[in-house]
Every structure is written in structure tokens, then in C-alpha cells.
Amino acid sequence: MIQGNVKNLQDGFTPAIEVPPEKIPLAFYSGLFAYSGWQFLPSFTEEIVNPARNIPLGIIISMVIITGVYILANLAYFVVLSPTELLASEAVALTFGERVMGSWSVIISVAVAFSCIGSLNGALFSFARILMVSSREGLMPQVLGMIHVHNRTPLPAAIATFPIVIGMLMVPDINTLINYLSFTRWLFISIAVAVIPYFRWKYPDIPRPFKVPIILPIIFIICCLFVVGVSIYSSPVDCGIGAGITLTGIPVYLLFVWWEKKPSWFTNAVDAVTCFLQRYLLIAPEDKRTD
Q1: Of these four, 4, 42, 127, 192, which has the most CB atoms within 10 Å of its CB?
Q2: Where are the transmembrane segments (predicted)?
């Protein structure tokens, strides 16, 4: 940019090609996916000292840093590569590295790999604790709520995420995966956030360690519903597939939660599997909290 290579930035809001309507939701979802790491932090509330202060602070600091890094990275891409080259590239960062660094472009690949490892670590850390708390509330099998006796980590919940991850890796196109799952993801996020204004109205006097101006969740809900509505209108098939994947959780709910009067052979089998996993994985129920 210092040398004046800004020709690709002069028409940033002029589309180089006509965007089909069915691609609009994917554009929204891809952008939201890139910045969605903040969602992991609230899952760590039990692990964080003074969460009322540190969780909002962590979200704000991380979002500012990530936004700055992403903007600088995209500026670098458009200074070096044309829009046509960006669209044709299967790995933009690697193409950028080959153009700028030559044989040293392997550094870009290593940096991307470390970035993926960090993202995977955060996702595994978060999803395992979601499963553990779901088990604690009686919504999942009891074994998923147990922790390792030495490391005190939710080992069975972490292992339970592996089949899901392997299934996702079998999808050849990441954009297809984002399109399938983002519809239900943002739909349920909007429903969860809708609880905030409802509770503010229903229970106005209860203590709230985390509190934001009521206008913020309302704006967030409207934006989520807009994205979901656009995706239903333009890509109903993808939304239907995503909803179908989500509905596979109904049998688990019916089996472990709704079905209360289970026969003895079923409970004995579940207990036997639980005892085997406790011995094999060195896991046990977590200590009851007294605070």
C-alpha cells in the first residue's frame, strides 16, 4: 500500500460478479463463522476467576484484536491479489504467501495450522463443558458429566465430540457444512438470547452479574432472525437438511430424559457401560458444590 498498490481497493463496494440470491446466506454465515470464537468464552464461566469482570473483558479484547488482524489480512490479500485471483484460489493465504514470500510460503501454512489448532482447542474445550453441564442437568447420559480423577477434566464429554468431528471432516466442502449447520445454530442462538428481555420483564429484581442494555439483545435477535429468514427464503433445501441433522437429537432426548419408567434390563445395561467406562477412563462424578 505504501508503494501505491491500491487499485484493487478502489472499487471495494462494486461487485465484480453478480451474486446469486442463494449465495447470500452463505456470505452471512461465513462472516459470522469467522468471528464466532467469542461464543466459547461463556462456556468457561466455572473455570474463570471473577467471571463477571473477566468474561466481558475477554470478549471485548479478543474481538478488537481479531477484527484488526482480519482487516489487515484482507487488506494484504487485496493489495497483492486481484478479486479474480481471490475467487479462483482454493487457499487464499497460501496463494498470497507464494506470491509474496516465494519458497518461504511454508511459513503461512504453518501459521494457518497453528490457527486451526487454537480454534479446535477452544471448540473442544467449550463443547465438552456444554455436554458435561447437560449431563449434570439430566439431559444427557450420566457418564458424560463425569471428570477424570487426576486431571479433573470432562474426558468422556470430550471423547463424545470425536464422532461428530469425524463426521464433519467427511464433508468435502466446508461451505456446504457451514450452510447446513449455521441455520439451526443462529436460530437457537436467537431463541436463547430472547430469554434475556423476557427475564428482564418477568423477573426484574433478581441479581444479574452480567447485565447489558436491553437494546443490545433486541438488536442481536433481529439480526439473527433476519439472517435465518433470508436463508430459509433463498436456500430452503439446505435449511431443511440442517434442521434434519438437528432433529436427530430427539431420539436421545426421548431415550434418556422423556422415558422415565425404563425397564430394569435397560438401566442395568447403562449402569454396566457406565462402570466399565469409569474403570477404563479413570473417571468419576464431580464433587458436589457447596457454594
Answers
A1: 127
A2: 57-81, 101-132, 153-171, 183-201, 213-234, 240-259
